[in-house]
Amino acid sequence: MGLFSKFAFFLGVRKKEVNVLVVGLNNSGKSTVVNHFKNEEERVTEIVPTVGFSVEKFQNQNLAFTAFDMSGHGRYRDLWEHYYKDCHGIIFVVDSSDRLRLVVVKEELDLLLQHPDICNRKIPVLFFANKMDCKDALSSVKIAAGLGLDKIMDKPWHIAASNALTGEGLQEGVEWLTQQIRDVVLNKS
Amino acid sequence: MSSFKRDKKEEEDGGGNPFQNIEKTTVLQEARVFNDTTVNPRKCTHILTKLLYLLNQGEQLGTKEATDAFFAMTKLFQSRDVILRRMVYLGIKELSSIADDVIIVTSSLTKDMTGKEDLYRAAAIRALCSITDATMLQTIERYMKQAIVDRNSAVSSAALVSSLHLTKLAPEVVKRWVNEAQEAVNSDNIMVQYHALGLLYHIRKTDRLAVTKLVAKLTRISLKSPYAVCMLIRIAAKLLDEEDTGADSPLADFIESCLRHKSEMVVYEAAHAIVNLRRTTSRELAPAISVLQLFCGSPKPTLRFAAVRTLNQVAISHPAAVTACNLDLENLITDSNRSIATLAITTLLKTGAESSVDRLMKQIATFVSEISDEFKVVVVQAIRALALKFPRKHSVLMNFLSAMLRDEGGLEYKASIADTIITIIEDNPEAKEAGLAHLCEFIEDCEHTSLAVRILHLLGKEGPRTKQPSRCIRFIYNRVILENPTVRAAAVSAMAQFGATCPDLLENIQVLLARCQMDSDDEVRDRATYYSSILGQQDKGLYNNYILETLQVSIPALERSLKDYALNPGDSPFDMKSVPIAVIPTREEAEDKHKADGMIISSGPPKPPTVSREESFAEKLGHLPGVADLGPLFKSSEVVELTESETEYFVRCIKHCFTNHVVLQFDCLNTLSDQLLEDVRVQLDPSEGYTVLREIACPKLPYNETGSAYVVLQFPENDLPNSVGTFGAVLKFIVKDCDPNTGLPDTDEGYDDEYMLEDLEITLGDQIQKINKVNWGAAWDEAVATCVEMEDTYSLSSMSTLEEAVKNIVQFLGLQPAERTDKVPEGKTTHTLLLAGMFRGGIDILVRAKLALADGVTMQLTVRSTDGDVAELITSTVG
Ligand SMILES: Nc1nc2c(ncn2[C@@H]2O[C@H](COP(=O)(O)OP(=O)(O)O)[C@@H](O)[C@H]2O)c(=O)[nH]1
Ligand SMILES: [Mg+2]
């Protein structure tokens, strides 16, 4: 981070740019979540399954987010790690109505948290217990318990129940993430 | 001072190229900044440029290096800089074949190809198609279909061309886009229309009927794009060449009508097509030639070049038609573009009268030093044709060639001159003395070893039969004193030929060979010792077998046999007869080599020497059960078709002859998309005396694939007459019906079926291998002592010329003509054809056929063979 751009940031001349990684199993609603964060005029009307990844940009408060919306398909999960190193935050989307695959979610989460590029960093992780509108959806508390989030000691984390179709719960989550990134990442650097 | 120094150094390094000194490792290191959170587009663009530069210089990246660079590059998608994004597309395309998991950028690219930024769309399509694999293609299919019919012509073109590339990957998927391609053909944009036609044709090209329909439809509407029309002309011409319809096909009319198109490109394409059509008659040729004639006077050099180059080609097949352009060609002789001038002159040489040869040769002499080697070769080719056409002009032409030989020039050019001189010598006995003299002088300072060796070989072959053989020897011996070991060794061999052929020179040759035994090089000394001791025996038979006739076996096969023997010697001495004989290229093969001559088409870098057909068959057959025990492969026949070519199953046969066995190889092609064949085999009904030892089935034959089934047979034992016979044949197999799209069978249950094949013949020729006898007469004389002779007279009533008779006899017997006796001198009514070959089992055959023309052809056939039964087989089969 060059001196000038840091200055510019504090003077509010230029927005600070941060990268976040959006992960989770396929069909959990990642792309729908990210789409919702974008300006009204930039949103797409139809979400198709992501193949590989897609870069999206949105803003929250004074932060310019670059989101790497990853594909959650089995074939691509191994490729997430290529993007771990330089991200400032992680958004982990869980389909709370998909009880069957909650164990798979836990497995993937554990792999993520143990990865050398992640495990020693105090990087904020935001969980969305998505599809809360579905009738057999688990509550965010149950999801947190199922994933064993209470065992995450070295990273700030937060879980928010959400409905990506309506946007319910999303704003609360991203406010938290913005705050964390400001505190944890920027003030330190 | 120091800055001055640096400037100087940069200049020496090649000046302006800023990428001169970049290094792979450095660039890959720099590429890590792609991972930075904030992308600096200018910097990243520069690094990507360097990376692309390296890759285009042929720098190789390992998989890990490429994958790392690739994933770093994917992060650049966060930048919205247009230039950088387009560089990323290029990078993706370059790395797509080396890096792993490149499909990671699929969504990013589909987003760009469907997005609002027009500058991204076409390039994103191209990049996308380079990273896609067959499984991914389904997911992008929808976008490709949309893109093909996109309003933006760049997008549509990119999608069409990319689809064309994708047909290699997944032809079945791309086939489904045919409706979109059809729509794109109607585009107003000339490129889109052209590319759409290209794709449509490619999709349909294996289906003749569909292509015919396509062409019929498109020739009726008038396509707007001249490129598309050119393409259509090519397709139409191909169809015309393949079908045998009469002269007034609508396709021919279409091509003819294009001669009046408003675009010069189309007019040229049409003329070019007409000129090259196999069926074109001189009447149809005339309008095409007049168009080319017109182009000869065009102010545009490209048009003049195209026209004269095409005329140059036609001059071989239709010299009379080109004569009409002689005046225009004369004007082009002085064209400031040397390439045009050269082609004009060489065309005139091909078509001109004998009287104009001297004038044209003078004309060429004025600028031959100014043109490139490539065009000099064109001139040499023209002179070769001329010499064959006007034998009496040999001295002018020969002088010209020898002057060219003395000039500067590369190996290819020099070799083509030497080749031409050799052709002239072989063709025209009167030119021989002068030609050999020129070659003798040439080797005095020939810098190309390979060429010197070839010429020395020729001098050894032809020199002894000249009026003054001793003259040649002086030139040859000079090489022994002055040259490198390779040339010296060749010179020693050449001298030995003189010793063996000219008794009065023998003593001198022995003196020279004795000196050569003191040479510093092993090979030279070995050869001198070898020849000297054979010549010391004073035995004609030895001379014939060990000096005059070179080894007839295939050299790679000999090498392999010797290696096997050395590893596993056994008790018996090495048997030369067990080594397969070298296969003599057929006349067509030899001529094919010259076909491209005179057309300025580079054939690319020289290809590595390929193994002979027999070699590769031997290799393949050796893996079949039981075949390895049959001994060496003696001969593989030409391919025989056992079905019509457009039937459900297409079967061809190659007959592999061994000493006592024949292996029949049936190559079967399944053309039914809804059938999977299994256990495909051929059931034979062999003729008397043959025993079937083994049938080898082809386990699986999916649609559009060729598989081979085999049958191993033993020749009739001690019964040569029955070795020539006709077999009935039936193709047997199990059919499993399947889904044409996936090729997967509907059920596991199949049913038996069979398919009648045409009868298969084992001929005399299948059992005979050609042998090239340099000195046929000597071998014939010597054979009196060792061979059985059979003689018979035949009346070949169906033949009306000697040429025809010669051609048929050579083909029927499968023997090699010697001493150029397959060429019947013009105007003769009698001719003697000399042939040589070997029957399976290493039995020598010499045949003399005396032919006389009178109401058909009468032939007296004399056969000398080491085996009486073989001689009898030949005389009886001919009858
Ligand atoms: N009912 C419901 N459906 C959702 C919600 N979020 C996403 N979806 C649907 O889930 C499917 C998968 O969404 P997508 O964003 O492609 O998931 P991704 O694979 O994680 O990117 C889509 O059909 C969405 O419309 C949600 O909160 N509630
Ligand atoms: Mg997605």
Task: Name the descriptors.
heterodimer; A: 189 residues; alpha/beta; Rossmann fold; 6-stranded mixed sheet; 7 helices; disordered N terminus; B: 879 residues; alpha+beta; Leucine-rich Repeat Variant; 6-stranded antiparallel sheet; 53% helix; 14% strand; globular; binds guanosine-5'-diphosphate; binds magnesium ion; endoplasmic reticulum (chain B)
CATH class descriptor name of the domain at 614-762 in chain B:
Mainly Beta
> Tell me about the biggest sheet of chain A?
6 strands, mixed
Largest interface: A-B, 22 and 20 residues
Please state the structural category of chain A. alpha/beta
List SSEs of chain A in N-to-C order: HEHEEHEHHEHEH
- The beta-strand count of chain B equals 16
Distance linking N and C termini of chain B: 96 Å
The amount of helix of chain A comes to 25-40%
The CA-CA distance between the termini of chain A, in Å, is 8 Å
Oligomerization state of this entry? heterodimer
Q: What is the fold-level CATH name, i.e. the topology of the domain at 21-29 and 72-189 in chain A?
A: Rossmann fold
Number of helices of chain B: 38
List the ligand species: guanosine-5'-diphosphate, magnesium ion
Shape of chain B: globular
CATH class of the domain at 21-29 and 72-189 in chain A: Alpha Beta
Provide the CATH topology of the domain at 614-762 in chain B: Immunoglobulin-like
Family (chain B): Belongs to the COPG family.
Subunit structure (chain B): Oligomeric complex.
Subcellular location (chain B): Cytoplasm; Golgi apparatus membrane; Cytoplasmic vesicle, COPI-coated vesicle membrane; Endoplasmic reticulum
GO molecular function (chain B): structural molecule activity
